[in-house]
Write a structure and sequence with these properties.
Elements lengths: L2 H16 L31 E3 L6 E7 L4 H9 L1 H9 L4 E7 L5 H11 L7 H11 L8 H11 L4 H8 L2 H16 L8 E4 L2 E2 L8 H13 L9
Helix pairs in contact: 1-4, 1-8, 4-5, 5-6
């Protein structure tokens, strides 16, 4: 990605968190996607994958999400806790989050940059907190909300500010979005893949629907499984 695009993304994030008018969202970059990174365990990886569970689990579920997506927030509030207890915590599913930006893209980007701040060990708690904060965004002041989340997860204001304005972090985020669009052909959230097969659902999947999809994946021959 060019320095101009990196600067534009970081500037947009900083602008929206300070209450200034943010630049118009940038179109996806036209360059080719970066090839997948070597995978952990039996499953291939994409740039920046964030994972929960055992890498050698028999099923791998990938969720493309945006922190500005209300349907994603609904899934993580109403379905994910029971799904995690049933499948991830028991070693039956290896769960992966991949990132996509939806409007307001600057807010979604800021949330992802904050979640990866430091060593990324607070990624999932921060993602959960950002989802829960969505109803408060109507107040129009995003920075105090995100700073509150950052401090609750052990970050100082200086660390928070450094992370959301980091050009290398912005470049890595752009590469993850590019992979989503150009390699996995994802253009909306939430989008789910189970053992590489895209879940055909027009709504947020329920736990019973995921039960059916996982059972089907377990019965599928290895040759029928996708690469994701």
């Amino acid at each position: 990605m060019s320095a101009t695009r990196r600067t534009a993304l970081v500037t947009a994030v900083a602008a929206v968190l300070t209450g200034a008018a943010a630049p118009a969202p940038m179109p996806p970059a036209k360059t080719s996607a970066r090839p997948p990174a070597p995978g952990a365990g039996r499953w291939p990886a994409a740039p920046g994958d964030m994972n929960l569970g055992k890498p050698n689990a028999p099923v791998r579920m990938v969720e493309y999400l945006s922190l500005a997506c209300p349907h994603c927030a609904h899934f993580h509030e109403t379905v994910f806790p029971d799904f995690k207890a049933k499948y991830i915590d028991t070693g039956r599913v290896y769960f992966t989050v991949r990132e996509l930006l939806t409007a307001p893209v600057e807010v979604a980007a800021a949330g992802f940059l904050m979640a990866r701040c430091g060593d990324g060990s607070k990624y999932f708690p921060i993602v959960d907190a950002v989802f829960k904060s969505q109803p408060r965004w109507q107040q129009g002041q995003i920075k105090p909300i995100f700073l509150e989340i950052a401090k609750a997860n052990g970050l100082t204001e200086a660390q928070f500010q450094a992370c959301i304005t980091d050009e290398k972090g912005g470049e890595a985020l752009e590469n993850r979005i590019k992979y989503a669009v150009e390699t996995d052909h994802v253009d909306s959230t939430p989008t789910f893949f189970i053992n590489g097969v895209k879940l055909d659902s027009q709504t947020v999947p329920t736990l019973p629907e995921l039960d059916v999809a996982i059972a089907k994946a377990l019965k599928a021959p290895s040759s029928a499984k996708g690469r994701r």
